[in-house]
Amino acid sequence: MGASAGALPSLLLGILLTSILGSLGANPGLVARITDKGLEYVSREGVATLQSKLHEVTLPDFDGDFKIKYMGRGHYEFHSLDIHSCELLGSTLTPLPGQGLYLAISDSSIRVKGKWKVRKGILKLDGSFDVKVKGITISVNLLLGSESSGRPTVAVSSCSSHIDDVETHMSGDLGWLLNLFHSQIESRFRRTLESKICEEIQDLVASDLQPYLQTVPVTTEIDDLAGIDYSLVEAPRATAQMLDVMIKGEIFSLDHRSPVGFLAPVMRLPEEHSRMVYFAVSDYVFKTASLVYNEAGFLNFSITDDLVPPTSNIRLTTNSFRTFVPRLARLYPNMNLELRGAMVSAPFLNFGSGNLSSTPQIEVEGFVLLPNSVREPVFRLGMATNVSATLTFNTSKITGFLKPGKIQMELKESKVGIFNVELLEALLNYYLLNNLYPKVNDKLAEGFPLPLLNCIQLHDPVLQIHKDFLLLGTNIRYLRV
Question: What pTM value is reported for the model?
Fold first, then answer.
């Protein structure tokens, strides 16, 4: 989703504050952390937009009566004031502990051009003027919070601006008019411009950024089965060196969302500040994903004889099983078999020291396909394997790849006598390697979207594996809007 130009000053913050839907006080599944280095980058982007917004400011006309020695009384008017240039040079955006963010702009200037008119009786004079406003300082406190609907809020809790010096040039040799400006108009001009600066900042936040935050969806569909919840579990936390945004991160079924039977673990992030942005991804995210896809049957499989390679030594027919399961061939001569597999429970990722793994438990049931289209169960197998996982981050998503290990199989139940499962083990291993794992890896390659990553280009990312969570630290090359 693109953002309006006015939302750019706090766009990075705005993307981080994507939504609030879950219950307050719960542990987050995702934490997006922006450090002081990241806020420095946001500050540069934001001040550039504020600078362009100030060009759009309409300044009021100034007029009044004057009395000058030797000239008497007359009437003046300074009109058609236009901000010709604006330089906001020094800016800092820092966390404001317990509140939100503090924006400070200093060493800045604005150049204003306009026209003047003077009337005294039948005498009328006019010309142009040029005012350079120097030494502008701006201080803004941004209050970050949330509302009852579950979406974030941002508001200007305080704003002040100050002008150190006003340098004026008038067309023509009219020293008295210049003195008139300094004595009667300059103070009003200062106050008006100082007020207008804060008005524009207030308007930028209230009319652009806050409405933009209200339009960002709180959930995103991953595919036709699952969505991910980006709701905040509490208001953003500002400390001395960083801003943390706690996001629920639950992956849920699009068909029927039901409560998760476990909580996200407490993530204790290391005190690192070398990168602009950090993303902590709890194992809660992966566990909820596994629950959803397992419940939807995505990991289930069915093998019939037409899926067995022509070169295989074993076919899924009762005749092929004659040598090692003779009773099966006698009871069901010249019939096809089907193997159906399902996870005993949703397979969870194990976070180890620098690696990820899973130990899925699979139950495989063998059926005879009777002529009347009835499936007759004849045996049940238990299968286990170790799987290693690799996770990577592309421009907007977490992607993954599974590398399977050797499977182990045992006979759990048989209605046709005890038999050796080695041949079936080889057949199932072939199927898993050539069908199930590629299917799962294709899904993992599609990835799970993370907030913010679709709007920034990662630069020099570093991935760490901690107990119960992954930590991605990255710098930002540029912001895409």
Answer: 0.77
